[in-house]
Amino acid sequence: MNSRVHQGHFARKRFGQNFLHDDYIIKNIVATIQPKADQALVEIGPGLAALTMPVSEYVDHLTVIEIDRDLASRLIENPYLNNKLTVIEKDALAFDFNELSKQLGKPLRVFGNLPYNISTPLIFHLFEYANIIMDMHFMLQKEVVTRLVAAPNSKDYGRLSVMAQYYCHIIPVLEVPPTSFKPAPKVDSAVVKLIPYKEKPYFVKDIKILSRVTTEAFNQRRKTIRNSLGNMFTVKQITELNIDPTLRAENLTVEQYCQLANAWI
Ligand code: SAM
Questions:
Q1: Within 6 Å (CB) of ligand 1, which residues are found?
Q2: Is 192 helix (H, G, I), strand (E, B) or coil?
Q3: What is the rounded average pLDDT of the residues 70-87?
Q4: What is the pTM of this model?
Q5: Those residues with Cβ within 8 angstroms of residue 175's Cβ, 6 or more apart along the chain or in another chain
Q6: Hey, whose CA ends up nearest to atom 18 of ligand 1?
Q7: Can you tell me the distance from the alpha carbon of 208 to that of 261, in angstroms, rounded to the nearest whole number?
Q8: Whose C-alpha lies nearest to ligand 1, atom 8?
Q9: Which of 49, 95, 145, 221 has its CB 3.0 to 4.6 Å from that of 190, i.e. a possible disulfide?
Q10: Where are the beta strands (DSSP E) in 142-234?
Q11: Ligand 1: which of 4, 66, 116 to mutate, most ligand atoms within 8 Å of CB?
Q12: What is the per-residue pLDDT across 176-235, written as a single tens digit (0 to 9) for each?
């Protein structure tokens, strides 16, 4: 049988479709999520319902966001799911999670085996809604989980690490081999839990400035920050924060990025 066909569906590469078919991994993910009856669970990319089905057993209602029209129709017609499920046939990247949280009257618990081609922009999109999200559980490329939790002074530490660690407490949960999916992806995967801070460890006056500082620094990560951040700060301003201007982007802590963002005028 064609390796791209699973349960009669031809996996679409452009939607990053790699379907989970490993019961042990699925059980583990659901046990980590610990869905509770009255919570507002939201799944991104339910696909053929590998996670949707077991999660739905614990809750009264579940919202799913699926871009693929064929998969959305299958979910709507699924007799075991249709009385519990709200299927939103939309692009999660453009979805307003605030509106959904308002409608449900609760903070959201977001989860999904994310399409790898859009996982990083999707995570950044979700950070914009961090204040109405209780937690997130995602299957990602292992390399992305490594970057999410990376500490300064490592090659994996980048803009994603700084922004993710500013918003969330991050816990790697489980590593998953390619054989757990159909079709098997070329890379290893991992499950991660992200819990947005209620009280953030570091104060930032304007998140757009933190976003700009990290973009400028890491876009030229091999340069010293006196050069890469030269458009935003003088050497004197950097030194006054007790930050060495000869450091490179990967040497600065999350706290130091927050200090720089607050010092920008
Ligand atoms: N949850 C299923 C599983 O674990 O087997 C499918 C996971 S598959 C890696 C990713 C899913 O996300 C697919 O169902 C795909 O159609 C959907 N998807 C891709 N891009 C999307 C987007 N921008 N918005 C919503 N869903 C998307």
A1: 15-20, 44-48, 50-51, 65-68, 71, 91-93, 113, 115, 118
A2: strand
A3: 93
A4: 0.96
A5: 142, 188, 189, 190
A6: 45
A7: 9
A8: 17
A9: 145
A10: 168-176, 181-182, 189-196
A11: 66
A12: 999 999 999 999 999 999 999 999 999 999 999 999 999 999 999 999 999 999 999 999
